[in-house]
């Protein structure tokens, strides 16, 4: 069920709309469609925000994905997963997985997906906490049922109990304990900072990602940089 009729960006010409994919518990996506498309690739985007803030409708992500859809000439599906602390992990993982599955529904009710996409060209992209979610979802992917062309992790939210690289220097201004607390608020049932969902170094299934192409980007001044780099 659509929440609102499509809107059109006056600069890019990209159409966008919000679609509820599961009314119970209430998972929705914001879809972007560039002009004059026939069969194009799909980019499933999962936003960042420490698992606790932001949404698919946040101005930051809306403006970015509107332009990305225009420049990449792709359908973009931005996932509005439920956030902590009211909805702690793994709810964010499950909501995002539900949205990814929804893209591949047979006899799709969403015409933008059914009529304008090539489902052999699906990518998952996320930034920060969203990149963490993308990383963890990629391990679930069955490339026969849900063919995933590649994933992009933008400044991924990875952490761990023991400091590595330049982390000790980088966290002095904010405090290492704060970084610890963010994860425990987002995932209170976690086994700790070496939970494999947070610390890929502890993930024995790391080699089982259901995708061949992975791009990881890191930012020079990001406190989490070294986790993505190493």
Automatic annotation (TrEMBL):
The keyword Oxidoreductase does not apply. Residues 43-228 form the Alpha/beta hydrolase fold-3 domain. Keywords: Hydrolase. InterPro entries: AB_hydrolase_3, AB_hydrolase_fold, Carboxylest/Gibb_receptor, Lipase_GDXG_HIS_AS. The keyword rRNA-binding does not apply. GO terms for molecular function: hydrolase activity. Belongs to the 'GDXG' lipolytic enzyme family. This is Alpha/beta hydrolase fold-3 domain-containing protein. It comes from Saponaria officinalis (Common soapwort).
């Amino acid at each position: 069920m659509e929440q609102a009729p499509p809107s059109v960006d006056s600069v890019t010409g990209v159409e966008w709309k919000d679609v509820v994919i599961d009314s119970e518990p209430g998972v929705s996506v914001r879809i972007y469609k560039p002009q004059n498309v026939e069969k194009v690739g799909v980019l499933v985007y999962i936003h960042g925000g420490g698992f606790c803030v932001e949404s698919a409708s946040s101005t930051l992500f809306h403006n970015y994905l509107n332009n990305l859809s225009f420049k990449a000439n792709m359908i973009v599906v931005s996932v509005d997963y439920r956030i902590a602390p009211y909805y702690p992990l793994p709810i964010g993982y499950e909501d995002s997985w539900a949205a990814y599955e929804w893209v591949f529904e047979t006899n799709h009710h969403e015409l933008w997906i059914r009529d304008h996409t090539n489902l052999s060209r699906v990518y998952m992209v996320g930034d920060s906490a969203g990149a963490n979610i993308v990383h963890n979802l990629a391990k679930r992917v069955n490339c026969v049922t849900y063919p995933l062309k590649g994933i992009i992790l933008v400044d991924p939210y990875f952490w761990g109990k023991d400091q590595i690289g330049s982390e000790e220097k980088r966290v002095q201004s904010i405090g290492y304990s704060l970084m610890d607390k963010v994860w425990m608020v987002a995932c209170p049932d976690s086994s700790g900072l070496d939970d494999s969902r947070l610390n890929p170094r502890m993930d024995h299934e790391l080699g089982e990602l259901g995708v061949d192409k992975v791009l990881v980007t890191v930012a020079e001044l990001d406190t989490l940089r070294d986790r993505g780099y190493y």
